[in-house]
Amino acid sequence: MGLLQIQQNNELPGVNHKLYKSARMAIRKNTWKPLELQDLIHNGTMSKEMALFLCTCVKARLNIVVSGGTGAGKTTLVNALSTFIPKEERNLIGDVRGNDVREIFRKENKELDGFLATGHSSSPSNMIDRLEIIAYLEGMNRPINEIRNKIVGTIDIIVHLSRSNAGIRKITKITEVQGIKGENIVLRDIFTVNPLEGTY
């Protein structure tokens, strides 16, 4: 903490110096440290089992999309998970939108194996719907079944975060993108929060 001391004879604009013999101003410099997985376990964002599973997925180079609303903690989680990827191999896409969708759906783009991305959605299934819409609006001009095949062939895991009215951030679902049955993408929840008890 640095201290700026204003002596009696020094003038400060907007201050009535007749009222104050001297004044002292404290300037605080906050040190910001990114949260680690252990921090997210401690604050209740995830369980130990979730952390172990996600670390295993990252090290296995699975493609993971972290979904949720604004302020749910998506970027915080991605940053924590990215520490388990060697620097030279990191593929952090950020918020999936526009050209990013076209890029990750390029079948020949092998460099994107093991990426971490974020996306705004209300659930894992809603994340899939949004990806379909974005791909269509980006002019991929492909049949919906082909777009769904690309989603299934590209994304392995969706981690969904929610933020309560009290500001508590929590992983509510970790979902596997399994494949396609008929015309629909099949999702399987691996972890899910109990909405009544708040337990996993």
SSE blueprint and pairings:
Layout: E1 2-6, E2 23-27, H1 37-42, H2 48-59, E3 64-68, H3 74-82, E4 92-95, H4 99-104, E5 116-120, H5 124-137, H6 144-154, E6 157-163, E7 169-181, E8 184-192
Parallel strand pairs: 3-5, 3-6, 4-5
Antiparallel strand pairs: 1-2, 6-7, 7-8
Helix pairs in contact: 5-6
Tell me about this structure:
- Helices cover 29% and strands 26% of the residues.
- The protein contains 6 helices and 8 strands; from the N terminus they run ββααβαβαβααβββ.
- It has helices at 37-42, 48-59, 74-82, 99-104, 124-137, 144-154, and strands at residues 2-6, 23-27, 64-68, 92-95, 116-120, 157-163, 169-181, 184-192.
- It has a 6-stranded mixed sheet with strand order 4-5-3-6-7-8, with helices on both faces.
- Strand 7 (169-181) and strand 8 form a beta hairpin.
- The chain is globular and about 45 Å long.
- Residues 23-93 form the Bacterial type II secretion system protein E domain.
- It holds the Pfam family T2SSE.
- GO terms for molecular function: ATP hydrolysis activity.
- It comes from Neobacillus niacini.
Key features of this structure:
26% strand; alpha/beta; Rossmann fold; disordered N terminus; six-stranded mixed sheet; two-stranded antiparallel ribbon; 6 helices; 200 residues; globular
CATH superfamily: P-loop containing nucleotide triphosphate hydrolases
Structural class: alpha/beta
Number of helices: 6
Q: What level of helicity do the residues show?
A: 25-40%
Basic shape: globular
Would you list the SSEs in sequence order as H and E?
Answer: EEHHEHEHEHHEEE
Distance between the termini: 42 Å
* CATH second-level architecture: 3-Layer(aba) Sandwich
Number of strands: 8
CATH third-level topology:
Rossmann fold
Q: How many individual domains?
A: 1
- Unreliable residue stretches: 1-13
Give the biggest beta sheet: 6 strands, mixed
In what order do the strands lie side by side in the largest sheet?
4-5-3-6-7-8
Task: Please indicate the percent range of residues in DSSP E strands (runs of 2 or more).
Answer: 25-35%
Could you report the average pLDDT, rounded to the nearest whole number? 79
User: What gyration radius follows from the Cα positions, in whole Å?
Assistant: 23 Å
CATH class: Alpha Beta
